[in-house]
Amino acid sequence: MTDIYQRGAAVLPGGVCSSTRFNQAWGKPVYATRSKGARFWDVEGREFLDMSMSHGATLLGHAPECLRRVFEQTWEAGVLCSLDTEHHIELAERLCEIVPCGERVRFTGSGSEATLHALRLCRAVSGRDKIIRFRGHFHGYHEFTFIGGHPPAGQLEASPPYRESAGIPEAMAELIVPVEYNNPAALEAAIAEHRGDVGTIVIEPVDFNCGCILPEPGFLELARRLSDENDMILFFDEIQSFAKKSPGGAQQDFGVTPDICTIGKSLGAGLPLSAIAGKAELMDRYKPVGDVAHSGTFNAPLPSILAGLAFVETITTSEFWQHINTLGERLFTGLAEISQRSPVPVRFQHHGSRFGMIFGTREPVINYRQSLVHDPQTMLQFCRETTERGVYFHDYGGGSCHHGFSLAHDKDDIDRVLNVVDDSLAAMGS
Q: Which of 53, 227, 307, 393 fits as disulfide partner to 234, beta carbons 3.0 to 4.6 Å?
C-alpha cells in the first residue's frame, strides 16, 4: 500500500482525484480493485461490506446487471457522447412523470454542475442576485453556494458569510444570505431584511451532510408560502434526496412542490448523471428558446442516459421499495436500540435508505448549530473500528454526514452491520 500511495501522491495531489477520498481514519486513500453488489475489495486484498455505496450513487448496488446491458447497447450505438437521442427524450419524459415539479428537464453530469446552472437560471428569472441558503446544506463546490454552508462555530454569524474554500472571491459571499434550518422566525427575518434583493431560496430538504436532518413539520410549507408571497423561486436541491424514500424524492415525501429542483447522485445507477427539473415557464428561459446559457460536450452521454432509464425502471417498481423499506426498518430499529445502550453517546437519524451518525448526543438534531456537538475524532475512531471488522463507513474527515444501503444488500448484511456497529461502539467505550 505504501508503494501505491507514494506513486499516487507523486502525480495526484494527496494521491486522490477527490479531496474526501483521502481517508483520514486510515491516514491514506482507499484504493479499490473491484466491487460487486454490496461489497468492494481494496488493493490489500481486504473485502468490505460497503455502507457508503458511493455516497448514495450506487443505490442499485455495485455493478448491477442492468449496466451490462447499458454498455452493450451503447457500444452498438457508437457511444454518442455529444449528441441527443430518443433515449434522452424518453428519460426526460419519465422524470416529468415522477418528479412533482418536473415539466421540463435538462441533463448535466455532476451535482455541482446541476446546481450551478440551476442557480444561474433562478437569478435570470427572478432578476435578483442574492440567494437564501441554509447552514449545513450542501449544494456543490462552486462559488455560487460554497459559502456559509458549514462555517466553524465562531463564524456562524460572519459578515460577509464564511467562504468554505480558499480561492472564492469575497464579492461572491455578498450574494449569499445564510439562515438556520428549521427556524421559521430566522427565515421570515431574512426575507424581510433582504426583500427586493433575494430572488431564490435554495433548500436541501433533507440535510444529509449534517447527519441527516429532516425538515420540521411546516417548515417546507412556510418556505413555499413565503416564496409565493415575495415573488421568489423555491429551489429544492435533491441531488442526494432523490429516490431515497420514494421515486419523486423529498418533494413527494413531504408533499411540498418547489418551482425547480436538481436531482442526481443515484440517477445514473453509478454512472455520472444529474438533472435540473422545473416548471416550463422557468426552464424555457434556457437557450435556444430563452436567454440563459447551459451547454457542455459531456452533458448526458448515451451510457449515462441508458443507465438513468434502467434506474428509473427499477425504482418505479413496488418490489424495489418493499426491499428498501424492509431493510430500513430492520436497520434503523436496530440502530435505535444500539444508541440507547452504547457507552459512547451517538444519535442515528435517517431518511429512506440513508442515515447519519452524530457523536456526542442521543437527542434529536434539527439544525446545523445543534449538529456542532458532533465529535470528529470519535467518528474517525469508529471508522477504524468498523474497518477492522470488515464493514466500510466513509470517514468524511470525521464529519457526521451520511451512510446507507442499497438494493444489493440483504437481511444478513444488515444484521452484520448492526453487530459490527454494536461491537465497535462497545470497544470504543471500554
A: 227
Write down the residue that cell numbers 451503447 correspond to: 74
Tell me how far apart the alpha carbons of residues 400 and 1 are, in angstroms, rounded to a whole number.
27
Is residue 291 within 8 A of residue 124, CB to CB? The reply is: yes
Grid-cell match 486513500, residue found: 29
Reading the block at residue 175, the C-alpha cell is 450574494
Question: SS3 for 294?
Answer: coil
Under 8 Å between Cβ of 360 and 428:
no
Residue pair 380/398 in contact (Cβ under 8 Å)? The answer is: yes
**Cβ-proximal residues to 407 (8 Å cutoff; 6+ apart), any chain:** 59, 60, 61, 64, 314, 320, 323, 324
Locate 316 and state its grid cell.
418505479
pLDDT single digits (tens) 178-202: 999 999 999 999 999 999 999 999 9
- Cβ atoms within 10 Å, residue 425: 23
d(CA 319, CA 327): 12
pTM for the structure as a whole: 0.97
- pLDDT, tens digit (0-9, with 9 covering 90-100), for 286-308: 999 999 999 999 999 999 999 99
